[in-house]
Amino acid sequence: MFLILVPITVAALIWQWIALPSLPAQKRLRFSALREVLSRPYFFRAMAAATFTWGSAFTMFTYLRPFLEQITGVGVNSLSLLLLVLGCAGFLGTWLAGRLVRQNVERLLKLPPLVMGLMTAGLMILGSNVIATAIFMFVWGAMNTAMSVIWMTWMTQNMDDAPEAAGSMMVASIQTAILLGAVIGGALLDSISIYATFLGSIFLALLALALVGNGKSLLKP
């Protein structure tokens, strides 16, 4: 089964090699450049919001399978189908986000934590129903991929004078969030229950929403 992904991955790599333009560095990246971008209040706040947003997503997503097995009660075939639904929704999310970010991107920054937090709450309430679970997972999956498009668009618009440093900090923030999300979710699952893990995800989403606000504070002056 996994071997099927090999030609698809190779094709994607070739496509990117041909389609993506060359982006040479404007200047050598120094550690002082990282300190400089972090000293900007709007960027520091944005990185905190992005960290909580991705942390919320991966606190839930990392432990989605035990939820589906224990609460929804699906078998292997149904589990695979639900995960396929989530993955296919990602294509729609990417496409929609690409069209929506042409407008004011700051208005979209609150959508990922808001929508994904609501979908997680919906799973907690109606997770025993397979149809409801599929719907919640579809919406969650679409917003999960839209999240990257929205935040990367924000970065290109508001950190255009330091793209290398800002990009490095964004990648570091996302990777840290994924790690912490998995750790926090696992700790809650082991010590309390899967519901505690999902509540932890919702709590991180609320922190992200509080930092984003109306989005104006994350814009370049």
TrEMBL record:
Superkingdom assignment: Bacteria
Leader peptide range in chain numbering: none
InterPro entries, per the entry: MFS, MFS_Efflux_Transporters, MFS_trans_sf
One GO CC term, this protein: plasma membrane
Segments traversing the membrane: 6-23, 43-64, 76-96, 108-126, 132-154, 166-188, 194-212
Gene Ontology MF annotations: transmembrane transporter activity
Membrane-topology annotation of the record: Multi-pass membrane protein
Swiss-Prot/TrEMBL keywords: Cell membrane, Membrane, Transmembrane, Transmembrane helix
Keyword flag Repeat: no
Subcellular location: Cell membrane
UniProt main location, coarse: membrane
Name the UniProt record assigns to this protein: MFS transporter
